[in-house]
Backbone:
């Protein structure tokens, strides 16, 4: 088993220290192994066959899991919650008001990190925070 997968606790713990989750660097195999560790070995190949690596985990929620072959509602909600916990993403209620305070910085960062390409690849959490705090965010 990859040492990156065994670092799940440090990936979760990084939330409090405002660092990028370790899981963002996971390979497709790391993600598949983590899914199996969670008790879902039957879904390991769903993630591997669809090339879901650490960055693509950001996209995996109950609306995307059926597209990769996971259709059991209880499993989808459990996996979605585990992915959010792993990446430090807060659950955003469907009825969130625009008058509410801004969302958590990790969630905003992961939205920017989600696409592929040189800009997203180079983006680091601390740089993202500096840009947000200085008003230099060039969305």
Residues:
């Amino acid at each position: 088993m990859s040492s990156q997968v065994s670092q799940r606790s440090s990936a979760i713990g990084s939330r409090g220290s405002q660092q990028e989750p370790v899981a963002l660097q996971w390979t497709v195999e790391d993600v598949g192994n983590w899914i199996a560790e969670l008790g879902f070995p039957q879904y390991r190949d769903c993630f591997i066959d669809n090339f879901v690596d650490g960055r693509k985990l950001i996209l995996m929620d109950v609306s995307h899991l059926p597209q990769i072959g996971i259709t059991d509602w209880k499993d989808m909600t459990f996996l979605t919650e585990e992915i959010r916990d792993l990446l430090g993403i807060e659950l955003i209620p469907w009825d969130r008001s625009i008058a509410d305070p801004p969302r958590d910085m990790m969630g905003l960062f992961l939205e920017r990190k989600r696409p592929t390409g040189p800009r997203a690849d180079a983006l680091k959490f601390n740089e993202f925070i500096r840009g947000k705090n200085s008003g230099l965010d060039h969305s």
About this structure: Residues 73-87 form the longest helix (15 residues). Confidence is low (pLDDT under 50) at residues 1-17, 135-139. The helical segments are 8-17, 28-37, 44-49, 73-87, 105-113, 118-122, 125-134.
